[in-house]
Every structure is written in structure tokens, then in C-alpha cells.
Amino acid sequence: VQLQASGGGSVQAGGSLRLSCAASGVNFISYRMGWYRQAPGKQRELVADCTSGGTTNYADSVEDRFTISRNNAKKSVHLEMNGLKPEDTAVYYCAAVTRSRDYYWGQGTLVTVSS
Predict the structure, then answer these.
(1) What would the mean pLDDT of 34-53 be, rounded to a whole number?
(2) 27 band by pLDDT with thresholds 50, 70 and 90
(3) Per residue in 75-88, pLDDT tens?
(4) Is 26's pLDDT higher than 80?
(5) Angstrom distance (rounded) from CA 56 to CA 4
(6) 25: phi > 0 → left, psi -120 to 50 → alpha, else beta; which?
(7) For residues 23 and 89, what is the distance between their CA atoms, to the nearest angstrom?
(8) Residue 114 confidence (pLDDT)
(9) Is the distance from CB of 94 to CB of 84 less than 8 angstroms?
(10) What distance in Å separates the CA atoms of residue 60 and residue 47, rounded to the nearest whole number?
(11) Any residues with CB less than 8 A from the CB of 105 and at least 6 apart, and which?
């Protein structure tokens, strides 16, 4: 399983970024795909995830600001982030999760939001 994330960067508060993750070596539709983040000194946390059928789940802190989407044909998952806040600063990781809750991680992409 290989997950290649891209799209991180630096923005000012209120700005937007779009993260993308391309998967290979997986039966993509059998995985729940998600984005997690880890801020300095904090544990990794779920940001949003999406089943192959399109059911989404969001952390309360990003609800109404972030949107996760996936393209099963292209084996990709995206995270549209709007209204970014300094507290959204973190390394963001793409993850593929099996039904037995095995996790596969991509490399992180850094998002920095300045006030």
C-alpha cells in the first residue's frame, strides 16, 4: 500500500488549502480513507474520513470548514480546508483503514496557518 499526500503549505488565518492523496497497491474501494493530523506535542487525531460509499465523518473542530471527498476510480482522496485557523497547524496524514482496522499511512504534509 502506498499513499502519496500533497497540497500542504503556509496560509494566513481564514485562507484555504486543498490536500490530495493518491493511493496505489490497494483495493481502494475496500478501504475507509481518512485524514489525520498531528500538531507539535499532541497526539495524532482524526480530521475526517470517508467510506467507499461516501459516508463522511468529521472532527467537531473542523465540521463546516473542511470537506473530505474521494474518487474511487482515480484512487484518490481530498481534503478541502476553508476558514483555516492557527490551531489547524499540524502535519496532515492520509490513511487507508481496512475493515479489521489496520491502518496504512502516507507521508505527512505540513499545514501552517499564521494569525
Answers:
(1) 96
(2) confident
(3) 999 999 999 999 99
(4) no
(5) 21
(6) left
(7) 24
(8) 98
(9) no
(10) 9
(11) 3, 93, 94, 95
pLDDT band at 62 (very low <50, low <70, confident <90, very high): very high
* Upper half-sphere CA count for residue 21 (Cβ side, 13 Å): 30
Separation of alpha carbons 71 and 113, rounded Å: 27
Three-state secondary structure readout of the chain? CEEEEECCEEEECCCCEEEEEEEECCCHHHCEEEEEEECCCCCCEEEEEECCCCCEEECCCCCCCEEEEEECCCCEEEEEECCCCHHHCEEEEEEEECCCCCEEECCCEEEEEEC
DSSP bridge partners of 80:
18, 67
Report the distance separating Cα 76 and Cα 71, nearest Å.
Answer: 5
